[in-house]
Amino acid sequence: MTDLIHPQCSMKSVLEVFPGAQRALFRHFHIGGCASCAFQPDETLEALCSRNGLNVAEVIQQIATSHEQDLALEIAPAELAALIRAGGVHLVDIRSREEFETTHIEPAVLLSQPVMQEILGHWPRTELMVVYDHRGRKSPDAAAYFTGQGFGNVRCLRGGIDAWSREVDGKIPRYRVELSA
User: Structural domain tally of the chain?
Assistant: First the structure.
């Protein structure tokens, strides 16, 4: 896994190969979470480590380890479908309200402030909770948050609702999110 990145990789390419790298860098080295420790997409991993007094090999190993942990949190769409049929899952959609209202996976709830309060105050911390987003890129952050709040069985839908549409339910429309300038 560590052979996929090297010291001369730009941070943009590191994040393309390891989408959770920014979270890993922040969690373990307090890098990339605020303006004072941010990095630029074209900055090399070596330059980032040099600027912060870190060992490049150690940082690469931490990124790879964190990536493997992210993969272990994933649940395949077909596996989730079976759990939903059996009634053994709390499903949380972390996309926007507009996306949720357009389409979602039943019986998902849209994460909002009131739902967050309900989850933190009343949901059993041992039961399975699966979070999903559009393509599976943001859900590991949500899973990490819930894990940090004491939920012991949190997973992410691999590939998000986009993969669900391709692999389980073709009636759910696939879409692209256009970012405004």
Answer: 2
What would the DSSP string read from start to end of 17-31?
Answer: H-TTHHHHHHHHH--
Q: What is the pLDDT of residues 71-106, one digit of tens each?
A: 989 999 999 999 999 998 999 999 999 999 999 999
Could you tell me the residue range of the domain that residue 38 belongs to?
2-72
- Measured CA to CA, the distance from residue 117 to residue 108 in angstroms comes to 16
119 belongs to a structural domain: yes
Residues 66, 101: one domain? no
**What was the pLDDT predicted at 38?**
86
19 and 61 fall within a common domain: yes
pLDDT tens-digit map of 96-132: 999 999 999 999 999 999 999 999 999 999 999 999 9
Residue 44 within any structural domain of the chain:
yes
CA distance 144 to 156: 10
Q: Is the peptide bond before 19 cis (omega within 30 degrees of 0)?
A: no
Which of helix, strand or coil describes residue 39? coil
The first and second tokens of residue 165, run together, are 């549409």
Give the Cα separation of 29 and 33 in Å (integer): 10
Whether the predicted pLDDT of 36 surpasses 90:
no
Q: Which residue has the tokens 């549409």?
A: 165
E-strand stretches of the chain = 74-75, 90-93, 109-110, 129-132, 154-157
